[in-house]
Amino acid sequence: xxxxxxxxxxxTGPSLLELITSMADVAATQLYSGGDSLPAFQAxxxxxxxxxxxxxxxxxxxxxxxxxxxxxxxxxxxxxxxSRFTGEHRERLKTERPELASDLAGMGKALAEEWNKVPQxxxxxxxxxxEKEMAIWKxxxxxxxxxxxxxxxxxxxxxxxxGKARKKLVKTMNKDAPKRPKSGYMIYAGTVREKxxxxxxQQGLGMGDGARKISEGWNALSEVQKAKYAEESAxxxxxxxxxxxxxxxxxxxxxxxxxxxxxxxxxxLKKLIRTKMDEAPKRAPSAFSLFxxxxxxxxxxxxxxKPESEKLAMGGIAKLCAQKWTxxxxxxxxxxxxxxxxxxxxxxxxxxxxxxKIGYTEFLEQRQKIKxxxxxxxxxxxxPKRPKSxFAMYAADHKNEVTPxxxxxxxxxxxxxxxxGVTAEEKLAYEAKERELKEEWARQVQDFKxxxxxxxxxxxxKVIKLEFTNEAMKVSTMRFLxxxxxxxxxxxxxxxxxxxxxxxxxxxxxxSANKKIKREEVVNAKSAxxxxxxxxxxxxxxxxxxxxxxxxxEIKAFMESEKWTEYVKEAKRLRIPVKHLMLHKxxxxxxxKGTVASVPVPRRPDSYPQKGKxxxxxxxxxxxxxxxxxxxxxxxxxxxxxxGQRPYKEAAIAQKKEYExxxxxxxxxxxxxxxxxxxxxxQRRRRVIKAKNSYLKDMPKKPVSAVSLWVKENYAKLKKENxxxxxxxxxAKVGQSWKDLDPEEKAExxxxxxxxxxxxxxxxxxxKASQNWQSYLRATRVxxxxxxxxxxxSFPGPPKPASMPKKPLNAFxxxxxxxxxxxxxxxxAEMTKLFSNLSADEKKEYLDxxxxxxxxxxxDMEEWHKSEAGKKYLRDxxxxxxxxxxxxxxxxxxxxxPKKPPGAYQIFVEENRPKILQExxxxxxxxxxxxxxxxxxxxxxxxxxxxLEKEKREEFNESMxxxxxxxxxxxxxAVMNSVQGKNKVKATPVAKGPAKPDALxxxxxxxxxxxxxxxxxxxTDGDSSIKAMNQKWLALGAxxxxxxxxxxxELNRQYEKDMVEFNRSAEGKKYLRxxxxxxxxxxxxxxxxxxxxGPDAPVEPKRPPSSYxxxxxxxxxxxxxxxxxxxxxxxxxxxxxxxxDADEKKTFDDKALELKxxxxxxxxxxxxSPGYKNYMRVFNAVSGTAARAKNARAKAKAVAAKSRGKPAxxxxxxxxxxxxxxxxxxxxxxxxxxxxxxx
Length: 1239
Description:
The protein is an all-alpha fold. The chain contains 50 helices and no strands.
């Protein structure tokens, strides 16, 4: 092989890589070829290699093979009978019938006809030979699929199929795209192809010969003739470019590009899995899969021996396997389960080993890149492109002025040299254009970011990143941290559980169990844990802390090793978080700026007194070295008895007294005072930070100064002009440029700065008037010592915004304000007397000014209510009023409401709290101990408390039922319904019908429900659901159901007789009259709701006020004084109206008349609206007004006809009356009142 590789260097036929690959796979080929001969592929290469060895090299390279790739090393698959037959007879048919050489469809039909002529015996013989060859070929093929060359070929084949899939996508989704322009040669070929192919057909030549002739004809053309075709191709290219740009903007092209990106990503992911995950272990089979593999062969062989009509399909074979599995004995199934579990453990170990390799990490990285690329292509394809730079725009305008190409003095290099000589004015023009394009681009980008595509991009990016991070963290942990020390138990209970599992595990067992068993184990351990003494549990906590100290020492040593350094380096490369092996996460404050955790509580000083231990803790510390289990120590403590425990209890009391004395001394010395002062300061800082984060999120930020605005706009420009300056030098340059700035330009930035400061002060003022600022002040206010108890909870109303117009002063208040200097010491009564003694002119002056202020105030308030602040204030006021009314009603009417009864747990607490308080030492968590004791109770012990809860709940329900019938509760519910808007009628109003009399016959049930009633009466303990009854009813059949059908028919006949008698009785007639009247009211109310109360219904105009009321509305504010009662004000207004002469009253009469005219017009428009007409049509039809009007008109016409001696046409009259009533609507109702009375 090495000698042949040396010869390959001179070969020009196949590539070196292909030759080396072919020779390296000779051994694998011989595996399935069954002999020592070289494969056929090598024989085809002998000629070029010999030629190369002789020194004669060919000039023409080997053409790349087109079409589906073929594997030269694969054992050739035997041809079936039909394929072998067609291969032998195709050449004969070409010779006999030359026209078939270029007619593929005709050749196929001819071969089929020849095959049909073959006798069936011959066909069977050929098929048998084919089956024998296949039996030999299948093992060879199975062996070949294990070789590396097969994997290489499979990739080539898959790439080919992927390319076909992409081409198919183009044909299906991009079929309306403009066709690419043909080359000059293809245009020529299109003009002569038909003629050339006809000649080839006559001469018996194939399609390849036709193509060769067209090529020879093209080569025979002169350059002038070829230029014509090239010019036509160029014209097509111009048209294509325009159409292509239009097509790229269509939805069809966008959908195609999205589908293309998804298809390519899918193919790349599959290829990545084939190449990178080929060494991954195969998933372990389940117990059923193992069983199926043992029986499938026998089932398949038995199925093959059956007649063709009885053979099972794949689905039938699968069902048969499942049936055999269900019939398998439990012991056998258990064996398969154990085998599957063992294989699963082996698979998990192999998978972990595979994931530790660097190849799996590379797979994760490449998978993330493919998904990220797909996400970008799908969601960001329509994102606006960044505009060209100054140089790019200049290059686009002047590219035709330089020599194209690469290198010095050509193309981009020449354009750069030319750009250096551009004038300042031209460069400024380009820069202005660039700024304009960038601003437009920024707006387009922002619009795009507000759309759904960008949001989908961000969401998908997060999902991809999270998927990669989670898996990469697991893999890096397995690769680098498998040798790290195991962390200790996270809680005392976890330590207890581990100890219990070790004690329960028998010698020789591995301790592994399924999740269900482990879950039951945890539940049982939890119950045992809660029954332990509190001090025993505290002992587990002490052990856990000691284990934690040991672990921290070991983990610090591990973090100094090279393995940890490599892990951190890999984590940074993959951009994944580094795992925290130190368990004290609360000590990590880095990156928590602006949070409560960023203010650590000061560390306790060394002189801080240590709290004394309890008696059991002292005993545990003494016996810990002797006994390993905490439970055994607890049992020893119980066995000590009172006398044995006494020394430990005395020692605990002594330690407690010593601790209290030490703490008193510590609080009085300087170190203790400093410590508690720092603790108090830290707590206050934490409280302030929490209040800021909660309430000051919307607080306006202080604006930047004028100099900062100028620097923000010009810093990039100065940096570009001075690229060699360092940071501090550039900073000094910026400061000097601001100082040297023209005063007019500087004034512009200073004005902007002042405007921003003014806006900031105004927004800050509004913010400080908000509820959030008040909440912040309350949260950060320092509480004074010795204050009395907090006041009862009050509900302050919403604060009035600063922008809300202030209520103006009335005439009297304005007078008091004007006389504030003269009447500083005068009482309100004296000021009122002075105002009354004013002359009419002086008083009128005050009243007119007050009226103007009121008018202006109303206008300002109307405008303010339309603003956002006004709408918000109104909403807040409504909410406040509802809340206040609810609270007031609860306090007023629900004073005597029965209190809710305690639950079973609360009853247990009330009974046992005093007892537990005596048992526990001072400072213990009493409620925690009570909760643990409640949990430890058995179900029977809890039953007593549950029964007590039920009794108290029943008493509460009875007293609550009685309370709900009291006037106080009804008043409270009336207030609540009013607040919640439940009294408003929203649905269609339905008139309540008359009460059904006792004598009204009841309609009998149907046969099915009659059967249900009787069945439920017979079987009170059985299933009485509708479903069960329906099944019983169907089970009766027609004969069984006939009994109930006949019974119901008899009941219906009796019901009809009873109804006839009831309708004839006085009570029945009254009920029918009341029912008819109720139905009329209901229909009229429904019509009103449908036509006159909807959102699009016409609004009935309000009746205008009279001239007197117009006078009252205008003069009331000026006539009324401070402290006047409503009756006094009304009296004054009446007197003022009576004192007015006719001319003064005429002004108000004219206003009233104008309002009346406007009202009449609106009323006419309202009555002509479709909604009102529809309502009146229903009203007239229901109330009978239209019918009475029709009859009245018919009688009037009849009387008139008699007087004239003509008979009346009743039908015509009735028709006319119908049309009139339909057209006139409400008028028909008013005109017919007298007629209905006479009727």
